[in-house]
């Protein structure tokens, strides 16, 4: 007898072979192909009104099945786009030639988010095959720009409020606590990302001829960046922490119950030590405190050997994770003021905003979340936990606000699955159990 | 009547067409071709014992003419290698397709050092053609690794002490004060260049999943780099300034006499302001104070848009200009200690030394320097000045020590000729007058 899940995995491999990178327009063809593949897959699953809906950017794939009046309607959200695969040299096997090793599938997008997205497609396919109908109403909204911060999804949702209306938004794009401990995320940090560019001269200068007497763009960028944190890891921008909630003892106790091993994290990530804001535990630093990370930097000569120039230009990519009532636009203005005040003489600094999203929190006692927790527990050993997640899914807040719906962030990935990094992978046992869990969840209504 | 200098310029263009980049092994063929071209040129000039002498790296081109017993022997040193041409996009015309505009020749190496080197070849060619002999003894030692800090020239000079023995070493690889003001450099800064590399994790991490709780290689590199200077532009490394001479009032007065316009420098280089160590004038900062410049930096995501990673690795290229008795190895050890003391938790830092050279100073009253000053003044409007130069020519100290000879740094370039930058060029009026000046200099003995 052919195990149905083997066929599902074959489909997953096919999906992973399509290079749906959204950060680089060179992959445009992959995006188009990926959207087309998904639409076909939804049709095969018995979904109706399947549609590839154009936006100003990459298309949204829509589908629905709405034949259970009186039952809740779920909007299933996921993204078929993936991060760029570079640095290619660090992958064990090619990022778009999925390979299964030790019951894990290795490919770009395996856990983020193609594998998790396909769980829902296969859950409804399986229900339709078994019963010829679904126990609830379902709509799919699968986008192709999550990795570039969903620039066109907000207008899309606003424009199609009626079409997308629902009771709950079901999303699998977050990690479980570990292989046997399910997790429903009840907090997501907001995000603000921008580029900082420093210019000091009209061309690179010879460091012998001018060194010591003229501004150096790399030096000035370094000074500016270093002014943004103090020695205790606190962000020094005036007003940055406005809207950040007080950390209550109750919250601290709740977070202390979440499993976390400092030693294991260090070993797994190859760290010699953790590093973060003083006075907070690592899980607090990740889950409930805002951060400012430097994601990339460049300037001057970067080739082999030496070129003794004074660089005329340097730039950095910077991203903040925001919490509570921190507003990304407000934070950006405070950073702008800080930069203006700390800009060293002789430098011209520009800031370009790339991403912004407000933080969002959910109530773990909500019915949609509680039923999801129970569904998990039929297939996993441990009780479901309700962590605050460090990442951002900007669209969640929009779904809640615009559609007046309850977000249910029911993840099947693992923190260790290298999302956004080389050798990204997805545990197939979670793919199989994920399908069963989602079926069971829908049946519980 | 054909002007001889037109033929000389034709030869210069031919020389500039050969891409003799020494910093990149992809140009190896250009180096070989450049050395061969020079050897032919020296033969045509009537030089004897022309030889392409192999080293562990790029060859040295040697030639001599030694038929004036009792007269001084000059060793003419120059380099036929050039800086890399990138960034190519910023050149008005292609760097290895020389073009003459407004009596200036534009090409990589035009002023540094092919144009200046060829002045000497053409001066002896012209003397030989006019008189059938030279008024002094001459040896040529033209190397192909100056732009990578002459790694093989020191052993070469030590091995061939006898062959290279001389009374004075004549070098044209420094700038004049301006178009009508000749300059003989009487001080060169030393150099120490190294790469700093910071590693924090075994792979890039997702900033949503870990941001706030793990070390960030770019952030740690920034902290380390920013610890190297204080807010007044002073270098904070303990012991860095050991061996730096006191700045006497006499020296300050001498330097204050050198022409320097802050406004013009700013306009010319596109600076909004100068920037340097407090308490010193720009010419003091460049000429007699040590510096530490950041020549390049890289780490994390550098592509378009955003990739919200926590970078695992970042690196910077750093170079110091040294003065007086500062010893590069000693300074490097002090920097190593500083870095060890300031390395933030969670970072592994390595330093790789790339270049080292001690500073050197000359006495302006020396006969060889005085006669050079007088020769200049026959063809230029203003008196010759004797500046301290900010750059380093590591081999000069070796020539003086090993060959017991007097360095004469008689430049024909201009500070504004974009050496090491796009649109490098050389004023042909200085090429023509340079040939006359060198002929006159030799005739004065």
Structure description:
The structure is a homodimer of 445-residue chains. Chain A is α/β, with parallel strands linked by helices. Chain A has helices spanning 4-16, 28-44, 110-131, 153-159, 161-164, 207-210, 217-226, 249-256, 262-269, 282-287, 328-342, 367-377, 395-403, 428-443; strands at 48-53, 60-65, 73-79, 99-101, 104-106, 137-143, 168-171, 175-176, 184-185, 187-188, 190-199, 205-206, 291-300, 309-310, 313-322, 348-357, 360-361, 388-389, 406-410, 413-414, 425-427. Chain A has 14 helices and 21 strands. In chain A, the strands form six sheets. A seven-stranded mixed sheet of chain A has the order 1-2-6-3-7-19-9, sandwiched between helices. The interface between A and B is large, with 97 and 96 residues. Chains A, B: This is Acetylornithine deacetylase/Succinyl-diaminopimelate desuccinylase.
**Spatial separation of the terminal alpha carbons of chain A:** 31 Å
CATH architecture type of the largest domain in chain A: 3-Layer(aba) Sandwich
Shape of chain A: globular
Q: Could you give me the name of the CATH homologous superfamily of the largest domain in chain A?
A: Zn peptidases
The secondary structure category of chain A is alpha/beta
What is the oligomer described by this structure? homodimer
Helix fraction of chain A, binned, reads 25-40%
Number of domains of chain A: 2
Quickly name the level 1 CATH class of the largest domain in chain A: Alpha Beta
The average pLDDT score of chain A comes to 93
GO biological process, one term (chains A, B): proteolysis
GO molecular function, one term (chains A, B): peptidase activity
Pfam family, one (chains A, B): Peptidase_M20
Protein name (chains A, B): Acetylornithine deacetylase/Succinyl-diaminopimelate desuccinylase
